[in-house]
Amino acid sequence: MVLMGVAALVVYAGIYDIAADEPHSQPVFWVMQMVRDRSIAAHATDAVPVDLSEPKRIASGAVQYEEMCSTCHLAPGMKRTEISWGLYPRAPELRRGSQLTPAEQFWVVKHGIKMTGMPSWGVTHDDELLWDIVAFLRKIPELTADEYQALVRSASKTHEEMMQEMEMRGGHDHGDHGQQ
Predict the structure, then answer these.
(1) How many helices (H) and strands (E) does the chain have?
(2) Concatenated DSSP letters for 16-59?
(3) What pLDDT digit, counting tens, does each position of 61-96 carry?
(4) What pLDDT is attached to residue 171?
(5) 131 to each of 22, 65, 81, how far by Cα in Å?
(6) What is the DSSP string of 69-110?
């Protein structure tokens, strides 16, 4: 009970520095990382499509990644951007690979992660396009900068065309999803 009172005092008094240019203490970082990892594992229950290695799906995901993700997560051959330098916690460089399963990657892409700058792309994109991104995420660690650029150019549609097609397939609910 005393510990909860101290924690409430720290929060209410604004003692804990939440500035993005000051790292968390090791205990706070550990707790946040544990909460994030366990939450993702517990909620990532979507069935994984069998065609994640299909070239068209990977190319579609590459276009989506280039448009939506590379500014923060970077791409092969890409230098850090102003945004990627300023994020805390720093966005993982997905070109280096990920320990997450495909279902976990899908959940993160679809739902985002609070207080990290990772948006919920499920608000604006349907599951089909999000699985394309996951397919690409499985491939990105193998790509050189030239291969990445070639893959982006090889897609049959641009990001904008994919978004228009998604809307024509039945649209996507752009409601507030419980936002306040």
Answers:
(1) 9, 0
(2) S---TTSPPPHHHHHHHHHHHHHHHHHH--PPPPTTTT-HHHHH
(3) 999 999 999 999 999 999 999 999 999 999 999 999
(4) 62
(5) 35, 12, 26
(6) THHHH--TTPPPPHHHHH-SSPPP-GGG--SS-HHHHHHHHH
